[in-house]
């Protein structure tokens, strides 16, 4: 009975994935070859700024072109592009690389997405659905920042929403899985350190802290965490900075314990300098 059930489950999974692949084959990505950007520091809304704006103020960018750099005295901009006349059902827009701390997405004059980073990071990704009723509409992105970068630095993808969702999720999933694996290994090593001899304890704990810091760096560096857990952005940034500050002196200490064995005094002096520097950084 168990063998029969297992074979049935495998067959059903294969058939469903095959059917889903056939359905997806009929739906192809639709290119958005051209978009425009308008540098503007005005605080007015879309009705007063974007729609009445003269055409000659917009800078047109095609796929493959280098995006323009942000002027020094500008902290916000508008981006616009037009959807095709015919948009299939259950489609969406995915923009992989957006440099902005504040992002608002409009379809026509309708606000569909708003993201605000109240912490000093500016790399975002945006995924939002579009319907067949939105065909031919203009999409407007309101970008704002207090940092040096602003604008779109990747192509605009119009595809089936489920396919874009997989791209959006799996883009950073490897780093998150790798970081969680490092955290798990570090936790196991710290637990095992209670059963080690005193002579092994220093190198073992330093290696555990090294792996713990590395795992935290992998997780908190991923833009996926900031895009999906925005209210914890400050915490992620602090953990990233602390992990970097802990990683370097711990690496030097581990190297000193395993390979140096007290032969080179300059390594010990360099490690003490790193500890003082990291302690000041964490305190600040």
Q: Indicate the low-confidence ranges by residue numbers.
A: 1-10, 14-25
Question: Helix count?
Answer: 8
The first-to-last residue Cα distance is: 64 Å
Largest sheet: 6 strands, antiparallel
Shape: elongated
Provide the succession of SSEs: HEEHEEEEEEEEEHHHHHH
**Binned strand content:** 15-25%
Based on helices, strands and strand pairing, what is the structural class? alpha+beta
Sheet with most strands: strand arrangement: 3-2-4-9-6-7
Radius of gyration: 25 Å
Mean pLDDT: 83
Task: Throw out a few tags for this protein.
8 helices; six-stranded antiparallel beta sheet; elongated; 284 residues; five-stranded antiparallel beta sheet
Give the helices and strands, then pairings:
Blueprint: H1 2-25, E1 30-31, E2 34-39, H2 46-49, E3 59-62, E4 76-82, E5 91-99, E6 102-107, E7 110-116, E8 123-130, E9 138-144, E10 151-152, E11 156-160, H3 161-170, H4 173-192, H5 198-221, H6 223-228, H7 233-260, H8 265-283
Antiparallel strand pairs: 1-11, 2-3, 2-4, 4-9, 5-8, 5-10, 5-11, 6-7, 6-9
């Amino acid at each position: 009975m168990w063998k029969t059930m297992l074979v049935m489950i495998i067959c059903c999974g294969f058939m469903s994935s095959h059917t889903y692949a056939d359905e997806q084959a009929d739906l192809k990505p639709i290119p958005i070859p051209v978009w425009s950007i308008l540098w503007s520091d005005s605080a007015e809304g879309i009705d007063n700024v974007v729609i009445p704006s003269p055409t000659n103020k917009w800078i047109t960018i095609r796929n493959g072109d280098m995006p323009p750099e942000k002027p020094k005295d500008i902290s916000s901009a508008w981006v616009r592009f037009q959807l095709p006349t015919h948009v299939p059902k259950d489609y969406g827009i995915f923009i992989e690389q957006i440099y902005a701390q504040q992002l608002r997405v409009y379809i026509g004059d309708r606000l569909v997405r708003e993201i605000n980073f109240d912490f000093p990071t500016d790399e975002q990704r945006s995924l939002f659905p579009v319907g067949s009723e939105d065909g031919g509409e203009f999409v407007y992105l309101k970008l704002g920042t207090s940092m040096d970068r602003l604008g779109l630095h990747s192509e605009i993808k119009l595809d089936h929403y489920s396919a874009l969702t997989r791209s959006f999720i799996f883009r950073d999933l490897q780093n998150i899985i790798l970081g969680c694996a490092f955290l798990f290994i570090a936790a196991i090593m710290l637990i095992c350190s209670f059963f080690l001899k005193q002579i092994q304890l220093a190198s073992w704990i330093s290696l555990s802290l090294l792996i713990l810091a590395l795992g935290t760096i992998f997780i908190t560096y991923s833009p996926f965490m900031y895009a999906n857990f925005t209210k914890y952005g400050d915490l992620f940034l602090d953990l990233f900075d602390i992990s970097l500050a802990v990683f370097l002196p711990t690496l030097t200490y581990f190297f000193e314990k395993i390979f140096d064995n007290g032969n080179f005094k300059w390594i010990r002096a360099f490690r003490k300098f790193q500890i003082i520097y990291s302690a000041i950084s964490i305190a600040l």
